C-alpha cells in the first residue's frame, strides 16, 4: 500500500511538471522543419548571377533597425544574411520606413522583405515563404491608468478607448477588422514614436509585439509604461520572408535556406542573440494553481480507488479464510 501511494504521488508530480511546462510560454515561437534544398533551382540562380535587393525598415526593434552608421541590422536582417550565405545568394540592403519598403516590394522595385506579417490581403501583392517566427502582441498602457483597464478581457472591450498602432502594420488591419471605430485608431510612423506618444499622456494604449515594446521601454527609458494582460491570443503575427509577386524560384530558395539554418542550429544562435536578453518566461499562477488542484483531485481519486480496492481485497481474503476454516 505504501509503495503504491508513493508511485501515485510520483505520477501526480510528473503530471504537474508536464502541464506546467505547457502553460509557461514566450511571446516568440518558432518551428523546426527538415532540410530539402532544391539544387536545380539553386544552380539556376547562381548561373543568373543575380544581385537581390533586400528592403529593411528603420524602427522595428529588435526585429529590424539600423546602426549608427546607417546599416541594416536586427533579427530579421541576420536571418536573411544567414540564408543568403548558405544558399550563395548575392544580396544588398536598402533601408527605409516600413510603408516605403513595403511599397517598393509591391511595385517590384526590390526583391525581398525579411520581415512581413502574413495576411490574405498582402498575399495578393507579394509571395511568402514559410513563417520563420510567430509573434504575440500585448497591450501597453500608462501605469497610472491600470484601474481603467482592470475589467477588459478582449480588445473589443476597449472600443471606446483610443489605440495607437503602426501605420500600414498588421496591428492596424487587426483593430479595423475587429470593429474598433476609425476615429479611435491613431496611426504612428514608428513603434518608438507610438510608445513616446503614449508616455507623454496622449491616447489610451498601444498594441504591438510584447518583446518589442519591452525593448523600447528599456532603451527609451519610458518608466511610466507597462504591459498589461496576457498576450492577445486571437491575434498572432506569422512573420515570413516576402518576395515580389510571382518569384516562385526565390521563395523556394529562401525556404530551403531557412530549413538549413534551423537544422544546423544557426537559427537558434540568431534567436538567442536578439531575444536571449529580453526573453523571460512569465508564469500564470492562477493557471498553475488550477493545474495543481486538478492533479491533486486526480491523485485523491486514485488514492480512494486504491483504498477501496484494498478494503475489498481484505474482505475477500477474510471471507476465503473463513470458508477454509
Describe the overall structure.
With 325 residues, the protein is of the alpha+beta class. The chain has three domains: 2-23 and 285-324, no CATH class; 28-134 and 238-275, 3-Layer(aba) Sandwich (D-Maltodextrin-Binding Protein, domain 2); 136-228, Periplasmic binding protein-like II (D-Maltodextrin-Binding Protein, domain 2, 3-Layer(aba) Sandwich). 47% of the residues lie in helices and 21% in strands. The chain contains eleven helices and 14 strands. The strands form three sheets. Strands 1, 7, 8, 9, 10, 11, 12, 13 and 14 form a nine-stranded mixed β-sheet that branches. The chain has a three-stranded antiparallel β-sheet with strand order 3-4-5, with helices on one face. A two-stranded parallel ribbon has the order 2-6. A hairpin with a 3-residue loop joins β3 and β4. α3 packs across α9. It starts with a helix and ends with a helix.
CATH superfamily (homologous) name of the largest domain: Periplasmic binding protein-like II
CATH architecture of the largest domain: 3-Layer(aba) Sandwich
CATH class membership of the largest domain = Alpha Beta
Specify the number of helices.
11
Shape: extended
| Helix and strand run | HEHEEEEHEHEHEEEHEHEHEEHHH
Low-confidence stretches: 1-26, 30-37, 280-285
Number of strands: 14
What is the share of helical residues? 40-55%
Work out the strand percent: 15-25%
The fold-level CATH name of the largest domain is: D-Maltodextrin-Binding Protein, domain 2
Q: Largest sheet, described in full?
A: 9 strands, mixed
Structural class of the secondary structure composition? alpha+beta
Integer average pLDDT: 80
Rounded to an integer in angstroms, the radius of gyration calculated over CA atoms is 27 Å
What count of structural domains?
Answer: 3
Our measurement of the CA-to-CA distance between the termini, rounded to an integer number of angstroms, reads 27 Å
Amino acid at each position: 500500500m505504501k509503495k503504491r501511494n508513493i508511485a501515485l504521488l510520483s505520477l501526480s508530480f510528473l503530471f504537474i511538471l508536464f502541464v506546467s511546462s505547457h502553460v509557461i510560454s514566450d511571446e516568440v515561437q518558432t518551428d523546426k522543419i527538415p532540410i530539402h534544398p532544391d539544387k536545380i533551382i539553386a544552380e539556376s540562380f547562381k548561373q543568373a548571377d543575380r544581385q537581390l535587393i533586400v528592403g529593411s525598415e528603420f524602427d522595428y526593434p529588435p526585429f529590424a533597425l539600423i546602426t549608427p552608421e546607417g546599416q541594416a541590422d536586427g533579427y530579421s536582417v541576420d536571418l536573411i544574411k544567414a540564408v543568403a550565405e548558405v544558399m550563395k545568394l548575392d544580396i544588398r540592403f536598402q533601408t527605409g520606413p516600413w510603408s516605403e519598403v513595403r511599397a517598393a516590394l509591391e511595385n517590384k522595385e526590390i526583391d525581398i522583405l525579411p520581415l512581413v506579417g502574413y495576411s490574405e490581403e498582402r498575399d495578393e501583392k507579394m509571395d511568402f515563404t514559410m513563417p520563420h517566427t510567430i509573434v504575440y502582441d500585448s497591450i501597453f498602457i500608462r501605469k497610472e491608468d491600470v484601474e481603467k483597464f482592470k475589467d477588459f478581457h478582449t480588445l473589443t472591450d476597449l472600443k471606446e478607448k483610443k489605440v495607437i498602432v503602426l501605420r500600414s502594420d498588421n496591428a492596424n488591419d487587426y483593430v479595423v477588422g475587429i470593429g474598433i471605430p476609425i476615429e479611435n485608431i491613431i496611426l504612428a510612423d514608428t513603434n518608438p514614436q507610438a510608445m513616446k506618444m503614449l508616455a507623454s499622456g496622449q491616447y489610451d494604449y498601444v498594441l504591438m509585439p510584447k518583446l518589442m515594446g519591452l525593448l523600447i521601454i528599456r532603451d527609451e527609458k519610458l518608466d511610466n509604461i507597462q504591459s498589461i494582460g496576457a498576450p492577445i491570443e486571437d491575434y498572432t503575427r506569422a512573420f515570413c520572408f516576402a518576395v515580389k509577386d510571382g518569384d516562385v524560384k526565390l521563395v523556394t530558395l529562401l525556404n530551403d535556406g531557412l530549413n538549413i539554418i534551423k537544422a544546423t542550429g544557426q537559427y537558434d544562435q540568431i534567436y538567442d542573440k536578439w531575444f536571449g536578453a529580453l526573453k523571460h518566461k512569465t508564469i500564470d499562477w492562477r493557471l498553475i494553481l488550477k493545474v495543481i488542484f486538478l492533479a491533486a483531485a486526480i491523485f485523491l481519486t486514485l488514492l480512494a480507488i486504491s483504498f477501496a480496492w484494498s478494503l475489498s481485497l481484505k474482505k475477500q481474503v477474510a471471507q476465503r479464510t473463513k470458508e477454509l476454516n
